[in-house]
Automatic annotation (TrEMBL):
Keywords: ATP-binding, Chemotaxis, Cytoplasm, Kinase, Nucleotide-binding, Phosphoprotein, Transferase, Two-component regulatory system
Catalyzed reactions: ATP + protein L-histidine = ADP + protein N-phospho-L-histidine
SMART domains linked to this entry: CheW (SM00260), H-kinase_dim (SM01231), HATPase_c (SM00387), HPT (SM00073)
Claim: Cell membrane is one of the keywords in the record: no
Gene3D superfamilies in alphabetical order: Histidine kinase CheA-like, homodimeric domain, Histidine kinase CheA-like, P2 response regulator-binding domain, Histidine kinase-like ATPase, C-terminal domain, HPT domain, SH3 Domains
The protein, known as: Chemotaxis protein CheA
Residue positions where Phosphohistidine is found in the record: 74
InterPro entries cross-referenced by the UniProt entry: Bact_Chemotaxis_CheA, CheA-like_dim, CheA-like_homodim_sf, CheA-like_P2_sf, CheA_P2-bd, CheW-like_dom_sf, CheW-lke_dom, CheY-binding_CheA
Length: 678
């Protein structure tokens, strides 16, 4: 009988519970073997909790969503206690208390309450990852427990124990950097005066005076003069430079809060934008997520977990079986034995079915990657003070697990660029006649034997003229060469190495960060990247991906005495071109096919194989990113499945080839990488 990980862990929990209660005599159990199952279950529960929390943010009164979060926390509490991970079980127990208080209407859902729950959730994710990688956790669980306890003990007095991210002027930034260089610790002090305070300036002056006794005020928001004149709403922020370790934040906070007409004071270590706090980075701003967005991925994958290494081994075995099948075919054709041919037909069918089953085992829905992004978009949008509606479609589309693992980082780069730089601020959007709410869509669809994943935004778009200026300024292209580029070619410079700098990002509508990495990564396993952008209307980046990286359909071609394989995915058609229809432009050959100019590439030249060039040309027309070229070969011999084998460390740097395969007669041939030819 096969148990799910949850059932196994629950069974262990029941046994241990009986043992602890003294009810039965149980032989000592080694539960370390269940660590992997705990990790898998914990990640599933955290994913479900994350989705429910995001929905709950937009529908606070939905008890079903609240119960989903509660169930996930409860399940995680039980399994972590079973495994002896007390930090996780204690934190989830406190989260349960807060959720129960909300269910029983003792606590209202506010943005501050949700932020603390989200931050506690983030801590759980880190704790699980730490266990998974056998490393000591740096998460201060007690900090979260104390904050959660405050919520349930006295909800009315709950004050967020973090200060929102603040924007400093360049002068203030230099002052902070100078203080840090002199060895000072920077404390961030947020002071809130009572609403009916009549002399705000006086109270603020007393606070400033008290702080100056402890250290140097490095910066303030608003400026110190405005604060002392009472020119602020009900709160102000001060950055205090002090000797490291000389002041306890909690003690200073209590001391200042005791002053007349001071409602609250929060003191914590100041953290620059690009550094994470000791707990988790605070969030600011706001974002709007489509409720429908987060419905994707609610349904869990109903499957028995299989170690990916075992699947890889099985795929390799199937690959060898495919090779043996091809060899049997060759033998049957040469000997023309009826019984042998019938046997071969049976083996052929069985191998095809087996291959299909194995490949299906490796296929997983793209929602497993997609579901990581709604939370990221939410937090980034809040940090950037943008309003963004993030939608996902096609989460049920399946990809080979290996391909799916490869696209996570490229998608992260693309979506961050949409939020950080593609989508304008609400004010800029209104000024250009757009809705204040930006739209970002992540869409997956199936196209024959490929998958298309698109990242679409309705932001500023990529200005081709700015791209030309940027590439010239960086010295990557001359002005004359840049001006010869079409607008599409200029926009595609965004993928050029060397443009991934902060300066370029500001000059080209905020794009460029990591996009060369995206293109390189996707093309490394046979995918392609397609860019479409209109200034003022937005940008669409499409990733065209192979379903699998293990076995592909290919066309076998002969060049001289060598045989090569060309993936069918890249082939548009095969044509015979009379020699007189070939023209020269400079040193390049072209022809006209169906009214379109087609550049020709002779495989003989690429492979440095002698070519007589005295007959009509056999041309394989291939396409990549809407660009077509004709590969000139001697003969086209067959179409068959090929098992892609990596070429090893010595040959993996050779450009022009995606790998190698073994034919039925034992010959090793190279698989052409079309992406490096176009």
């Amino acid at each position: 009988m096969i148990h799910s990980s949850g059932a196994k862990l629950y069974l262990i929990y029941q046994i241990l519970h009986l043992k602890w209660q003294g009810g039965v005599d149980v032989v000592d159990l080694d539960i370390s073997e269940y660590k992997d199952e705990f990790i898998n279950e914990a990640k599933e529960e955290l994913q479900d909790m994350n989705e429910a929390l995001l929905d709950l943010e937009h529908d606070p009164g939905n008890m079903d969503l609240l119960n989903r979060v509660f169930r996930s926390a409860h399940t995680l509490k039980g399994s972590s206690a079973t495994m002896g991970y007390t930090n996780i079980s204690e934190l989830t127990h406190k989260m349960e208390n807060v959720l129960d208080a909300i269910r029983n209407q003792r606590l209202m859902i506010t943005s501050d309450v949700l932020d603390l729950i989200f931050e506690s959730f983030d801590a759980l994710e880190v704790l699980v990852e730490d266990i998974d990688h056998d490393r000591e956790s740096e998460i201060d669980v007690n900090w979260f427990i104390e904050r959660l306890n405050k919520l349930t003990e006295d909800p009315g007095k709950f004050v967020p124990d973090h200060i929102p991210h603040i924007e400093l002027t360049e002068v203030d930034k230099r002052a902070v950097d100078l203080a840090i260089s002199e060895g000072l610790e920077i404390l961030q002090v947020k002071v809130t005066v009572e609403e009916d305070c009549a002399l705000k300036g006086v109270r603020a002056f007393m606070v400033i005076k008290k702080l100056r006794e402890r250290g140097a005020i490095v910066a303030s928001i608003p400026q110190a003069e405005a604060i002392e004149n009472g020119e602020f709403e009900n709160e102000f922020i001060l950055l205090l430079g002090v000797k490291k370790g000389s002041i306890e934040c909690a003690k200073l906070s209590s001391e200042l809060a005791a002053m007349n007409e001071i409602a609250s004071v929060v003191v914590e270590e100041f953290v620059r934008e690009d550094v994470l706090s000791p707990h988790l980075h605070p969030r600011t701003g706001s974002s709007t997520l489509s409720a429908a967005t987060n419905k994707v991925g609610v349904e869990k994958v109903q499957s028995v977990r299989v170690n990916i290494d075992k699947l890889d081994a099985l795929v390799n075995l199937v690959g060898e079986l495919v090779i043996s099948k091809i060899r049997l075919k060759d033998l049957g054709a040469s000997h023309q034995l009826k019984d042998l041919e019938e046997t071969i037909a049976t083996v052929d069918r069985l191998v095809t079915d087996l291959k299909s089953e194995v490949m299906e085992m490796r296929m997983v829905p793209v929602r497993q990657i997609f579901n990581k992004f709604p939370r990221m978009v939410r937090d980034l949008a809040r940090k950037e003070e943008k309003v963004i509606n993030f939608e996902m479609e096609g989460g049920e589309i399946e990809l080979d697990r290996t391909v799916l693992d490869e696209i996570g980082e490229p998608l992260l780069h693309l979506i961050r660029n949409c939020v950080d730089h593609g989508i304008e601020s609400p004010d800029l959007r209104r000024a250009s006649g757009k809705s204040a709410e930006g739209q970002v869509r992540l869409v997956a669809s199936r196209e024959k034997n490929q998958v298309l994943i698109e990242v679409i935004d309705d932001g500023a778009g990529i200005d081709p003229e700015m791209m030309r200026d940027a590439v010239v300024k960086k010295g990557l292209m001359t002005r004359d060469d840049a001006e010869k580029l079409t607008d599409q070619e200029a926009q595609e410079l965004i993928f050029m190495p060397g443009l991934s700098t902060a300066e370029t990002v500001s000059e080209v509508s905020g794009r460029g960060v990591g996009l060369n990495v995206v293109k390189t990564k996707i093309e490394s396993f046979g995918g392609s990247v397609i860019l479409n952008s209109k200034v003022g209307e937005g940008t669409r980046v499409a990733l065209r991906l192979p379903l699998t990286m293990a076995i592909v359909q290919a066309m076998l071609v002969e060049v001289g005495d060598q045989t090569f394989a060309i993936p069918i995915n890249n082939i548009v058609e095969v044509a015979s071109i009379p020699l007189e229809d070939v023209s020269m432009i400079g040193s390049s050959e072209i022809t006209t096919l169906r009214g379109n100019v087609l550049p020709l590439i002779r495989m003989h030249d690429l492979m440095q194989i002698p070519d007589t060039r005295a007959k009509d040309l056999n041309v394989v027309v291939v396409e990549r990113n809407s660009k077509q070229v004709g590969l000139v070969v001697d003969n086209i011999t067959a179409q068959q499945e090929v098992v892609i084998k990596m070429m090893g460390s010595i040959l993996k740097g050779v450009k022009g080839f995606a790998g190698a395969t073994i034919l039925g007669d034992g010959r090793v041939i190279l698989i052409v990488d079309i992406g490096t030819l176009i």
